[in-house]
Structures are given as structure tokens and as C-alpha cells.
Amino acid sequence: MSENGARGPLAGIRVADFSRVLAGPYCTMLLADLGAEVIKVERPEAGDDTRAWGPPEVSGESAYFLAVNRGKRSIALDLAAERDRDIALALCQSADIVVENFRPGVADRLGIGYETVKASNPGAVYCSIQAYPPGEQPDPRAGLDAIIQAQSGLMSITGETSGEPTKIGVALVDVLTGLNAATAILAALHGRSRTGKGEYVTVALLSAALSGLVNIAQNALTTGIEPGRHGNAHPSIVPYQPFEAADGALVVAAGNDAQFGRLCQVLELPGLPEDARFATNPERVRNRVELLEVLGTRIASWPAEELTARLSAAGVPASRIYGVLEALREPETRGAPATMTVQHPKAGDLELVRPAFRLASTEVGASLPPPLLGEHTAELLAQLTDETP
Q: Has keyword Transferase (predicted)?
């Protein structure tokens, strides 16, 4: 049983978490969900920046902070003070994993940089999350998600065809960075189990954004042409977008020729798949405008719920467009709730989104609530004092 009260494959693993905002805390929350003991180091009085990112709030705690900090204990340390720096280094010496997302050079200046930690704890997996890859830092700018969306090209491919570049509605670059960091850390832990040696892991927001472009990046490399914006449509699959039905919108995604054929059967357009312009996906992409006009006219005569049900029954991916709260509630009706409840010291019953992964052999998802600022300082100071030789 780990400190966060959850059984999991990382039970017994300690994480010294010096990160704040989103990418780092998301990474360390995933580790906590898998059973690790995560000790979150925060500035006295102010704490993690996201503690002030409200409203909305729950009993004075910002929803943003609550979203990515379950399963952790909080210790308040002033890393500008020598005594607290010594405590932070002692924490690093006792940790299996150290995660930080300071600007380049700051961790070294605070006495908890990689080389310093490695000298006293050579088995530590040390993860630095930065805005830009090592050696490519153009200046000391902070890695803000919106800036990286702009620099990576992600913003340029998002939005309506004739509209302006658009930021994605969630800080997706930070989330991708946190996932990449957790993946690399787990790989390094596995490597340590074989060699006994630690590892220095670096993850850059820009790198995570560029790798997250996947097929769009490859399209650009293949053609030498800048990708454009396609709104809610797909650049390489048709039809794959929302349509207006008689009483609302639904998304239809016919990803192959067989699905397109079944779509035409439901819509009572049996001759369409035989038309040379639409017989294969490459032809449908080339003749996108003509095809969408035909499909749009027919779909506009159907009630959205009825058409969605007919298409789903026929094996054609389709869905109406859910709101966020509606989407969080709907899985519960199928017996797989998307949320979990923990007991928070100020908010009481606190509903949080479950982790995306499941393990057949054990329950995942940390049972400790997001901590109050410095909530565990006294007990952790005593614990670290006992552990220090």
C-alpha cells in the first residue's frame, strides 16, 4: 500500500515533484494514479500557480489545481532559503523519481539540478520538462501552451477553412507533454530495474507538439506543402465531419469504403458508391465538394437521433455532439463512470475525472485528494529528518 492509499504497480516508488501548472503536475498525477507516493513541493503562501487560476473554485480551491493534483502530499519550501534547499535536496536523495519544470538553469541554481541529485542519488530517474529541446532554447521564455501551439504549427491547422488560426479548447500541448514525460519515466524505471542506474529524461513542449502532429506532419514532409485548415472535416478522409440534420447536428465518420457503402444504404443512396467519383476514398477526397453536397442534402431531412441510431446499427461511426458535462455523465449510464469521488478536507465529497487507463489486476486512481497548500509540511519534515543519515 503506497502513501496515497492506492494499490498499484508503482507502490513504494517516491516522486519528488517540483513542477507546477499543467504538464508536470499531470505527469506526476498519472504516477500517483499508478500507486506512487508523490510529494509536491510548493512555494510558501502562493503555492502552485494554478491555485490562483479561478474562478471556478470549490471551497476556495481552484478547479484548475484540483484537476491535476490528486494523490499528492504538499510540502511548502522556500527554495531561496538555504535550510529549505537542504530539505529539498534530502527529498531528492530519498526519491526514485524527480520531476521539475523550472526554466533552464534554475534547478541548478537552487541546488537540485540533475548533476547534484545524481551525485548523491545515482539511481534517481530525473525528468526535466522544458519549453524547448536541450540546446535549442532560443531565450528564457516560459513554455506557455498557447505560444507552443503557435510555434508548432498546431494553431495553423486548427479552425475553419476561411477563418483564423485557432487555439485548441484545452491546453493539449501540456497534456501531451505530461503523457510523454510519464511514458519516458516509466521506461527509465524499467531500465533501472535491470541496470541499477538512474536516467536523465528531458521532455520539451515543442517536441511533444510536433510529434503530436502525426499524419499532418507527415503530409507536409511528403508533399512539401503547408497543410491548410479543414474546420471539422478531415484532410484525408471523406466523409468525416459534422452534418446538419433536421433538428440538430451529428458527426459522421466513414473511415473506409465499406462504411461509406453502408452509409449510402442507410441514406437510400444506393448508386453513390458505384459512381466513379466516389467509389474509393481517394476519389471522395478529390471530389469532396460534390459528395458533401449530396450527403448534406439527404442528411438534412433526417432527425438527428434517428439517423445516429440507424448509422450506428449499420456499423457506420456516428454521434451527435455532446457538451462536456453531458459527456462526463453519459458513461455512467453504461456502467462505466467517467468520474470518481474523493474526500477533500475543505470541499468534502469532491468529484474528479478518472484516469484513462485501467489495470485488470488492481484498481487505479489515487485516493488522496488534491492537497491544501503545505498541508503535509510538518509530517514530511519529520519523515525526511528520520530518513536523513
A: yes
